[in-house]
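Help needed: design a sequence for this.
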């Protein structure tokens, strides 16, 4: 008899006893699987029969595997994953890790998810484990256990459901009778923010949603950002409650709206923040960044303020526009049949600064780029990594795409480079397949037909246009004669009265610190639908990032105000993957078809012109009836015009057929090429083995 058998049986009994008690005692629940494992292992050594012990061994191995799986899933080890994506979309960024490591105040995350609901959509079922693992991961990474994560299952008609609704987490209709909750509230001391719904369609934004919420509730003094715009961003937008981008700015920064006369609004801003007496210039020490969005109708005095701000070491993000659709909408009449009243001018620029730094802007000309234009609207450009030549620029960190609407382009004037005397960097640029068209052509009914074949043109010998340019260094003033507003004021006083005029400071002629000027050739790219959109759920909803536009600008702001932590996290947006090979082939077909169509259009125009000449001659001769000669000529010209129109339609159909055939060829090649390769390799291996067998 095995002398250890009584001890083993005793251990088995104790293990099973505590295993059973763990279901009724919450204190023993963490040790439940330890007790079961102990019982099975002890029991496996008790029998004398090898067969029985082998059976127990198999059962013990299965128990150990099950126990290990449970143990790993409940620890940080279980949240680890291997990220095989091209841009490491599911790997925490350094910014996220820095925020978590530098937490100094406790953060509580109440994570609400209804797990047992019949009919839960499959995409929600797949997204719930992803959110579970991510929240556990950031909880484990936080220093000193400063993040407390509470998993709450708000079943219907329970206190947990009431708590979720009190935290303003949104209910989602699953079926006609069933609802689920899938959101979170994040709080720290007296600050709190809510993620009403974790939308599975916004999976790439999960990290930014949670980390930005943690940063928001733990930040006590928000960085200061100055705003200058001809748009009413606080009241406009598709919801009439302000641009969504403006809401993001207010949420993350201490936003000072200075209007189009920045120095005139400084006194109230200084008084509200108890900064003391306001100076007559923009101070980068107090306002480290100025965001200028569509400065339409900017006065020389306001532009001088920006010029001096840059010379003092400030950072300006200037979003100018050749044709702002938002501005055009502001001038539309609210009463049907009545002409538009007022409104914001559609084009904007910084004339003196551009002239000083040799910047040529497209003015009212909209740029279309064949490589990035969309089929539905050539004025919308979807830019990917190919348009971003500087790979190590931190503002473009993890930015996969930008979307521009009726944008312009920057280039050097007079054959010289942009920014003479300072450093110039093209952060985002066009391809060589671009052209400029009048802004009104883009919106006219005939514009689409005119643009259809114009996109196929290539400009290999021209330089690329810049969509985003950075000028950096010690600037020289664009106003060597000083403040133009002050000069006008002094001239007026001298003309009206012979009073002594006190001389005022003419401003800096050369920069005293390194300044930065970001130029972006579009302002509508930050409007609702281009940067963010509001996804409604029931009576509320949440904001979605639809492109890299907002994250890109926020990355620049974070650099200027000294916070770089959210740069990688907020930049994770859906990727635009342009089919460049297909687009190049389409461009070649469009170019050939366009040349043929132009020939037919010229013939049709010539025939119409000849018929008009005949009608003019009849009018001059006061002839009421056509002579047989004129009738024959008109019939001939009319037939020529009809034939030309038919040829145009035929050519267009032929072009479309070639495009369809091209797309079908690409489709079937993509589908069949891999199976064919596998079949060929399989046949080669088969015949090689057969040859080896026959040789034996």
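Sure. Designed sequence:
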């Amino acid at each position: 008899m095995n002398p250890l058998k009584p001890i083993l049986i005793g251990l088995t009994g104790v293990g099973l006893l505590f295993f059973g008690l763990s279901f009724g005692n919450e204190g023993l629940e963490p040790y439940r699987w330890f007790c079961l494992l102990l019982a099975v292992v002890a029991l496996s050594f008790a029998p004398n029969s090898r067969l029985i012990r082998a059976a127990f061994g198999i059962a013990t191995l299965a128990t150990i595997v099950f126990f290990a799986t449970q143990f790993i899933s409940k620890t940080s080890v279980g949240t680890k994953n291997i990220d095989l994506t091209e841009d490491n979309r599911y790997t925490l960024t350094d910014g996220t890790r820095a925020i978590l490591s530098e937490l100094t105040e406790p953060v509580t995350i109440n994570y609400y998810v209804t797990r047992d609901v019949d009919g839960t959509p499959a995409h929600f079922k797949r997204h719930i484990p992803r959110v579970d693992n991510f929240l556990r991961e950031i909880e484990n990474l936080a220093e000193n256990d400063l993040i407390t994560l509470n998993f709450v299952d708000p079943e219907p008609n329970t206190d947990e459901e009431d708590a979720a609704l009190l935290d303003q987490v949104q209910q989602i209709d699953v079926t006609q009778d069933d609802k689920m909750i899938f959101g979170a509230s994040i709080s720290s001391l007296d600050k709190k923010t809510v993620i009403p719904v974790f939308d599975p369609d916004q999976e790439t934004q999960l990290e930014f949603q949670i980390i930005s919420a943690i940063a928001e509730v733990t930040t006590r003094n928000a960085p200061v950002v100055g705003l200058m715009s001809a748009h009413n961003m606080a009241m406009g937008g598709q919801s009439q409650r302000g641009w969504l981008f403006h809401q993001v700015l207010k949420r993350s920064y201490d936003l000072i709206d200075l209007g189009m006369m920045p120095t005139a609004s400084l006194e109230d801003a200084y008084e509200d923040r108890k900064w003391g007496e306001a100076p007559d210039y923009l101070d980068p020490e107090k306002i480290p960044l100025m965001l200028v969005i569509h400065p339409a109708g900017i006065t020389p005095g306001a532009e001088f303020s920006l010029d001096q701000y840059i010379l003092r070491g400030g950072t300006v993000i200037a979003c100018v526009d050749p044709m702002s659709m938002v501005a055009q909408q502001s001038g539309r009449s609210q009463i049907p049949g009545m002409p538009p009243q007022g409104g914001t001018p559609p084009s904007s620029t910084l004339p003196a600064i551009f002239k000083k730094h040799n910047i040529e802007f497209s003015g009212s000309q909209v740029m279309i780029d064949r490589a990035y234009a969309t089929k539905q609207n050539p004025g919308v450009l979807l830019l990917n990594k190919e348009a971003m030549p500087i790979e190590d620029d931190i503002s473009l960190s993890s930015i996969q795409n930008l979307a521009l609407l009726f944008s312009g382009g920057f280039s050097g004037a007079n054959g010289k480079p942009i920014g003479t005397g300072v450093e110039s960097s093209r952060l985002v640029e066009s391809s060589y397949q671009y052209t400029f068209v009048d802004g009104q052509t883009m919106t006219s009914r005939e514009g689409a037909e005119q643009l259809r074949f114009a996109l196929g043109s290539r400009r290999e010998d021209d330089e690329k246009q810049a969509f985003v340019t950075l000028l950096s260094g010690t600037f020289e003033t664009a106003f060597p004669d000083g403040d133009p507003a002050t000069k006008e004021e002094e001239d007026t006083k001298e003309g009206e009265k012979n009073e002594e005029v006190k001389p005022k400071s003419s401003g800096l002629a050369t920069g005293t610190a390194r300044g930065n000027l970001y130029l972006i050739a579009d302002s509508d790219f930050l409007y609702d639908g281009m940067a963010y959109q509001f996804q409604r759920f029931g009576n509320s909803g949440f904001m979605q990032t639809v492109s890299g536009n907002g994250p890109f600008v926020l990355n620049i702001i974070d650099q200027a105000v000294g916070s770089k932590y959210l740069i990688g996290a907020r930049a994770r947006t859906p990727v635009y993957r342009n089919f460049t090979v297909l687009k190049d082939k389409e461009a070649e077909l469009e170019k050939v078809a366009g040349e043929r169509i132009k020939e037919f259009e010229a013939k049709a125009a010539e025939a119409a012109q000849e018929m008009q000449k005949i009608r003019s001659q009849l009018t001059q001769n006061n002839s009421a009836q056509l002579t047989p000669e004129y009738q024959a000529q008109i019939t001939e010209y009319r037939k020529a015009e009809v034939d030309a129109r038919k040829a145009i339609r035929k050519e267009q159909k032929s072009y479309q057929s070639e495009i369809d055939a091209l797309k079908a060829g690409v489709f079937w090649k993509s589908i069949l090429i891999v199976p064919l390769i596998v079949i060929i390799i399989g046949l080669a291996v088969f015949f090689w083995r057969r040859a080896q067998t026959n040789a034996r």
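Residues 225-329+344-492+506-570 form one domain.
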